[in-house]
Amino acid sequence: MPNFTVRARHLHGHHARGVDEASPEAAAVAYLEDFAHDTDLDDDGDVALIVRDETTGREQCFRVDLETGRTEPCG
User: Fold this and answer.
1) What is the rounded distance in angstroms from the CA atom of residue 38 to the CA atom of residue 14?
2) Whole-angstrom Cα distance, residue 67 to residue 62?
3) Helices (H), 1-75
4) How far does Cα 60 stand from its chain's mean position?
5) Per-residue pLDDT of the chain (75 residues; tens, 9 = 90+)
6) CA–CA distances in Å: residue 9 to residues 1, 3, 75
7) pTM here?
8) 51: exposed, middle or buried (Cβ count in 10 Å: 0-12, 13-18, 19+)
9) How many Cβ atoms are within 10 Å of 69's Cβ, its own excluded?
C-alpha cells in the first residue's frame, strides 16, 4: 500500500494516485513528475495538490512552483 495519495486540489478524491515517498512534500513532487497533465496552474504558475497520509488519514495542501520545484503549504 502506498504511503500517500495525491491529487490536484481541484479534482475529487477518486482522481488520487498512490505514491511511495518519504515525506508529503516528496509525494507532491513525485506526483507532478508522473501526472502533471492532471493539474491546473493558478495565476502564479503554481499547482495546488492535496496529499493524504494513508497511515494517519491526515491531509495537507501544498503549492508547487513548476518552474523551480519549490514546495510550500497552501496559504
Assistant:
1) 12
2) 15
3) 24-35
4) 9
5) 679 999 888 776 667 889 999 999 899 888 888 766 555 555 566 788 999 999 999 999 998 887 787 888 987
6) 22, 19, 13
7) 0.80
8) buried
9) 10
Residue type, 36: A
What are the contacts of 50-59 at 24+ separation with CB within 8 A? 50/6, 50/7, 50/8, 50/9, 50/16, 51/4, 51/5, 51/6, 51/24, 51/27, 52/4, 52/5, 52/6, 52/16, 53/3, 53/4, 53/24, 54/1, 54/2, 54/3, 54/4, 54/5, 54/18, 55/3
